Amino acid sequence: MSSNKSGVLMSDEASKGLISPLRRKLLMGMAALPAITMLPRPSLADVPATSVVNTTGLAVTDTGVTVGILHSATGTMAISETGSIEAEKLAIEQINAAGGVLGRKIKFIQEDGASDWPTFAEKAKKLLVNDKVAAIMGCWTSASRKAVLPVVEQYNGMLYYPTFYEGLEQSKNVIYTGQEATQQILAGLNWIAKEKGAKTFFFIGSDYIWPRTSNKIGRKHVENVLKGKVVGEEYYALGSTQFNSVINKIKLTKPDVIFTDVVGGSNVAFYKQLKAAGIDLAKQPLLTISVTEDEIDGIGGENIAGAYACMKYFQSLDNPNNKAFVPAFKKMWGEKTVIGDVTQAAYLGPWLWKLTVEKAGSFDVDKIAAASPGVEFKGAPEGYVRIHENHHLWSKTRVGRAKLDGQFELIYETADLVEPDPFPKGYQ
Amino acid sequence: MTDNRFFNRSEFIGILVLAVFLVVVLPLTLDVFRLNLVAKYLTYAFVALGLVICWGYGGILSLGQGVFFGLGGYCMAMFLKLEASSVENTKIQSTPGIPDFMDWNQITALPFFWKPFNSLTFTVAAIVLVPGIFAWIIGTAMFKRRVGGTYFAIITQAVAAILTILIVGQQGYTGGINGMTDLRTLKGWDIRPDHAKVVLYFFEVGCLFVCIMIAQFVRHAKLGRILVAMREKEDRVRFSGYSVANFKIFAFCIAAVFAAIGGAMFALNVGFMSPSFVGIVPSIEMVIYTAVGGRLSILGAIYGTLLVNFAKTSLSETFPELWLFGLGGLFIAVVLAFPNGLAGIWGDYVQPRIDRLVSSRKSQPAGWTDSSVADGAPAE
Questions:
Q1: What is residue B11's predicted lDDT score, i.e. its pLDDT?
Q2: Residue A48 lies in domain
Q3: CA-CA distance, A60 to A133, in Å (whole number)?
Q4: Exposure on the CB side of residue B7, measured as CA atoms within 13 A
């Protein structure tokens, strides 16, 4: 009896094991359909020879091509970077379900940067030198990118970097799929100045290069373009949890807008203390460039509801691409996952690489670098994007208002794509 | 050849084996990428070597060796960064000719304390002197007041935390949390290509053996015996008329200088320096390397460092999401089962058998961990 029972159980499990990956693949493929239909589809007959598409000894075979995924799966940054890893794996699975790249399935090697910048450099080198990956999807913090940059330049790799960042950088070997600082900040400041009649701004940031550079650009824009005034600019060490003194200053100076780029766990303390101090975000406009749906998960919707965030993507965006993307993501990674701005930008990486490879007709890094400008991805969840000459993306700037349920409600978006300008004149 | 001022016969064989391993076996079997990784691991071996003297012999547990590793590394990195920031290389900046992170932080002229680092001679001197003097100041302040044991360990941790905060906070002068990246040339010689990595590896191994010799000398001199005596019964040494504080300061300074040399090697080999090597966590990791190798054994510490780092790399490559648990388990297992580390295993299980084999032919006992000087049993 008992052996019979276990036999039944086993066969049941085995059949589940057989069906579910297949079903998942099908669903993934279906989710990617809106994207695929817009792409020129290479017919199966013309899979080009490996010797033609790979002249530099990359890990490309007749049936497969290997890319690297390099994020922090452990350490303090894991909480932020996990979304990027998930998005990249989803994109790769969808691309494979749709036939791969130049007839080759994408395989990936995942390495852990462990929230440690030199480890990032070591692993990047390993991926390029040992594994000969055709591209790396990776990095998150500016520090990790700065560590990896010399490595990808020296070994001539291709890095797809997802995070919005401070700009002041441009490399043949990097495609920046997030926004640089001016793309993220200027339109948002314009909007809030017009909408709220804001004249005075209070800047608060974490103390490292991204907030400092962003605030420098913000200050120049407020002073020179909006003819307003910055009434305070304060920085807190990464991980800081004591914001009472700055909150008192806010109460004294009564700025029209609080502009923040506080990152990571500090956000939780900052918004809770703001609320405890009686600052009601429904009445006191606050514009943040560092809080996505991921952060709200930790902050709690009730502590931040009413704040404005300036991003290029919100999970709640209402367009056909996003309507396919969000369920596909949740299908793969669980119903409870949220999708923030960077996660979406990470999703763009493998797709842009695939499109560029197909445009160049080659996996060679030099040809991809040269073919990148002008590559457009119509299936992006944020809408249409295009790679600029400077290897950043043309994309829209959007303002959302945080709701109690942790999602953003889209309030404003720029009419046109905003040009990326990593070395902005007049803002340095 | 036997029993001179540096080593006895079995130690000589041990060093010879290590030399063959590092100079012949590894370069012949590993590709340049892996060899460069070994070079990175070996930079921590300098720290572990210092800890053997300071902690193993002197009984002074420092949980802040990252400070000295960092000081040495930053001195070297400052020199390399200045060379990489020529006006030509940095012409897109608002102020060309200064390091890029200064430009981002709106600094328009090279700070005064950066200027001497244009000279390689000054830099080499600074790598030894800056951490040495800093250790001397901490050591004098602590040991003269008879602060020791746990309190000293806590204070070294505090120093590590303070220095990290200082480096991260003063990002305009130090590169902040990003550290100093993109180091390129040493006196015009490109340190990035493969052949340079090989040269740097052999240079580093050479420096390591110089440090091993110094450590061996300290150990066999009267100094080493006093350190051990001090560890076992500090008051007796004091009542015998020795200045315990001075010996402790010396051991601490020598460990600091070794760590600093390691840091400088790190900057050269990896082309990178960041505050992530200065703080509390890396400092404790460095103690773990020593503990795994055996804190009483000079060579054990080096093997321990190589083993732990090798495990770190291979575990993280194989299990990117779980590797930290595996590594943690390894540490706990080693410390629980083998309190004297690899050297303890060797001394307890392997060496006696070799001795038996040898003594069956010759009647001359010898031991790798040389119990005449550093008895295997810790005092605590």
A1: 86
A2: 44-178+321-395
A3: 8
A4: 20
Sequence-distant (6+) residues with CB within 8 A of B197 are B32, B35, B36, B39, B191, B269
User: Does residue A26 have a pLDDT over 60?
Assistant: no
What's the pLDDT at B136?
97
The reply to whether B177 touches chain A by the CB within 8 Å rule is: yes
User: Residue ranges of chain B with pLDDT lower than 70?
Assistant: 1-4, 361-380
Residue B254: which domain range?
A: 9-359
Whether A112 sits inside 8 A of B316 (CB atoms) is yes
* Residue A28 pLDDT greater than 80, yes or no: no
d(CA B89, CA B94): 13
- Say whether B179 and A143 touch across the interface (CB within 8 A): yes
Chain A residue with minimum CA distance to B183:
A150
Q: In this structure, are A282 and A407 located in the same domain?
A: yes
If asked whether residues A147 and A67 sit together in one domain, one would say yes
Contact residues on chain A for B265, CB-CB shorter than 8 A: none
Q: Are residues A307 and A391 in the same domain?
A: no
Q: Tell me which of A71, A127, A144, A146 to substitute to probe the interface with B (most B C-beta atoms closer than 10 Å).
A: A146
Contact B177 A213 (CB under 8 A): no
Q: Does residue B66 lie within any of the structural domains?
A: yes
The answer to whether residues A227 and A188 belong to one domain is yes
Rounded-to-integer distance, Cα B252 and Cα B128, Å: 13
Pick B272 or A417 by higher pLDDT: A417
Q: With respect to residue B72, please indicate whether it lies within any of the assigned structural domains.
A: yes
What percent of chain A has a predicted confidence (pLDDT) above 90? Answer: 73
Same domain (yes/no): A349, A305: no
Mutate to test the interface with A, among B92, B174, B272 (most CBs of A within 10 A): B272
B370 domain residue, yes or no: no
Per-residue pLDDT, B363: 53
Closest to B33 (Cβ–Cβ): which among A130, A142, A168?
A130
Domain assignment of residue B372, yes or no: no
- Pairwise CB contact (< 8 Å): A74 & B324: yes
Residue A427 in domain: no
CATH number at residue A224: 3.40.50.2300
Number of domains in chain A: 2
Lowest-confidence region among A43-57, A85-99, A136-150, B222-236 = A43-57
pTM confidence score: 0.81
Q: Which amino acid is at A118?
A: P
